[in-house]
Amino acid sequence: MWVVWLDRWQFGITTVYHFLFVPLTIGLALLISVMETLYIAKKDSMYRRMAQFWGKLFLINFALGVVTGIMQEFQFGMNWSNYSRFVGDVFGAPLAIESLAAFFLESAFIGTWLFGWDKLSPKIHLFSIWMVALGVSLSAFWILTANAFMQEPTGYTIKNGRASMNSFGALLMNPQLSVEFPHVWLGAITTGAFFVAGVSAYYLLRRREIKLFAHSFRIAVYTGLISSVLVAVVGHAQGQLLIHTQPMKMAASEALWHTSPYHAPWSIFAWIDSAHQRNPIDIEIPYGLSILSYNHTYGAVPGMVELQAKYVRQYGPGNYLPSVWVTFWTFRVMVLAGSLMIFLALYGAFRGLRDDEWLAKRRTYLRFMPWAIALPYIANSTGWIMTEMGRQPWAVMGLLKTSDGISPTVGAPLVWMTLLGFGAVYAAFAVVDVYLFVKFIRKGPDSDQGPDEMDAKSTVLRLNPTSTQ
Hints:
Mean pLDDT: 86
Order of helices and strands: HHHHHEEHHHHEEHHHHHHEEHH
Largest sheet: 2 strands, antiparallel
């Protein structure tokens, strides 16, 4: 069990770290595509400078995301060989498509977009960045296709102790995927929106490039409002699916030891103990849990004690309870962060209706926005922690336990060594990432002069150093 604990910590740390980069990549790609579309439609060079500025930050983030993702892949063979052996026939197709199609699509068109300014026609160049946005979204789709199988296995048969895919269509029509992908994708758009809004607020507070960053702020805050509201809507649908597919996770997220009353309240705060008792200091919303689970004020939710007894009968002896404390609180932190984002985006959308100068004077609100960049990261991370830890003890729900998925020949010393090694490398990446972001944010957008105009001016200055024209 010590090795299992170390393997889980290593995979959890590297996954959460990698996922710090993925949502921002998806979100920025879409926002940059919108900005360049406005440049083509309005023929205003401000939008070109805007797209180029955010494009630099996108490229930094994209590069570090690729590197951390490659390191994460190694763990499947190093620490989780039994898991890889079990799911390999199912995971092979979506992961191959992600690598050979989606990843190469985004990588190829990133180069075209980066080096194609003033070399390609404006519409072809615009097409390139939209293909990047499509590619990064498709990458997320295929990865989540594999993850959805872990949450709710579909389209498979068991042959020789391994899961074998018998229907690719069933894999794509997985009910879990239909809610998981929109929830993650919209969360990524929200991440990009709050990043752009926060950095734009930084410039507005310093009264630098007010017009450009007021427009950036508006694009971001309107996008963030729409996406954050839709995240909550899709997340609600995802929670209702849990009642049928992973009722133990749902019960753990509510610290619900025993089956709820028919009109179930939702606990804002609860004392988590192991005595299977609710504490008198619980703060509850009447009918809240029934509404969250069934869209009605009525409907009982199964408790962990009853589900544990059911799983023992179904799967054999064992402990089928996840970490209740972690599942309960990560869900609430995610909801709190999401609620704050909706409020800040709604307020910013209202304030953004005025002119640029008026917006730049809303200093109290603008001071909050750089700090609000952390909110989608908190929501994304706690959401994934709840999703993965709430499924325990299963690696693949109902088919493979986490303890059976580790590599039998890899001992604790090797896992410790790689855990510390990955931690050191990732710490170095974090330093590089922060340094590059701060450097380019402080530098700001490039001059509003086009490359041809700048080359002409440089030529004049070389021929006549005293010229100021």
